[in-house]
Amino acid sequence: MDLVDGLRVFVAAAETGSFAGAARRLAISNKLASKYIGELERRLGVQLFQRTTRRLGMTTAGELLIARAPAWLDALDEMTADLREEGAGLTGTLRLAAPVTFGEMYVQPMLLRLQRVHPDLKVDLRLSDRHIDLASEGIDLAIRIGELGNSSLIARRLGRSEVLLVASPRYLEQHGAPETPADLTSHHCIRDSNMLEDSKWPLFENETPQWVKVSGQIRVNSARAARNLAVAGEGIAFCPDYAVAPDLTSGQLVRVLERVRTPIVDINAVYLKSHHIPRRTRATIEFMVQEGFARQFQ
């Protein structure tokens, strides 16, 4: 007797309450179901069921086995499915959440590259600057930027991002360039409410953190909006490097107070703890590490 087949019959009998129910579920004869249970009991050296004419009850050994056997069989099925699929493309739906600006600029193009390699993969991309609850919203994978706190999620670091002080050349020509962090108090500063303290910017001089109070007429909740306003000459913005990297290259924006150190934060892929992570989720993480956007921000 195959041990796996015996366990499948045992689980079916325990869940249906009879050998006949197990036989119907597994499309085998009643006699064969009973035979499998008998051989399983002989192999394990224990009695699993109390058999009476009216009902089928489990022994203590049977209760111990039913507590573990279904999960073991599920894991075996998932493992063999993964092995069969290893040479095939990714399938199913990947539900991925990411911050709005980072998602639009880097995650969405990365997913297109992934889908060119795996055309049968469906993608459901959720862009939001709030921390989405992965369990309640059915999310397989999320991109988080910054401190994770005491998160129960599993994290894989993809890269790092530095928050930069930037302004347009036109703004600096009209208002002058700040020479010290304290000079920011007299400038038009574009505040991003996604930051924990948008009215105070954390800067470092001689490795000592310094919270500089800033003010301005404009407050937004988007790194891309802050970038757009800075390009338009409306003030100095405090933006993540991924939002302004093309503009720094083109000269539309320039760095301000370059000698002052600014915060550097981690870019992480996070997912729920589980005994089995879907292959498409694992493959997407590896794709991001090896071929995707995050290598630009190491």
How do the helices and strands line up, and which of them pair or pack?
Elements: H1 3-16, H2 19-26, H3 30-44, E1 49-51, E2 56-58, H4 60-85, E3 93-98, H5 100-117, E4 122-127, H6 134-137, E5 141-145, E6 154-167, H7 169-175, E7 189-192, E8 200-205, E9 208-213, E10 219-220, H8 223-231, E11 236-240, H9 241-250, E12 254-255, E13 264-271, H10 279-290
Parallel strand pairs: 3-4, 3-5, 7-10, 7-11
Antiparallel strand pairs: 1-2, 5-13, 6-11, 6-12, 6-13, 8-9
Helix pairs in contact: 1-2, 1-3, 1-4, 2-3
Could you characterize the architecture of this molecule?
With 298 residues, this protein is of the alpha/beta class. The chain is 41% helix and 23% strand. The strands form three sheets. Strands 3, 4, 5, 6, 7, 10, 11, 12 and 13 form a nine-stranded mixed sheet that branches. A two-stranded antiparallel ribbon has the order 1-2. Strands 8-9 form a two-stranded antiparallel ribbon. The longest helix has 26 residues, at 60-85. The radius of gyration is 29 Å and the shape is elongated. The model has no long low-confidence stretch (mean pLDDT 87). Residues 1-59 form the HTH lysR-type domain. InterPro entries: LysR-type_TF_proteobact-type, LysR_HTH_N, LysR_subst-bd, WH-like_DNA-bd_sf, WH_DNA-bd_sf. It comes from Rhodovibrio salinarum. Pfam families: HTH_1, LysR_substrate.
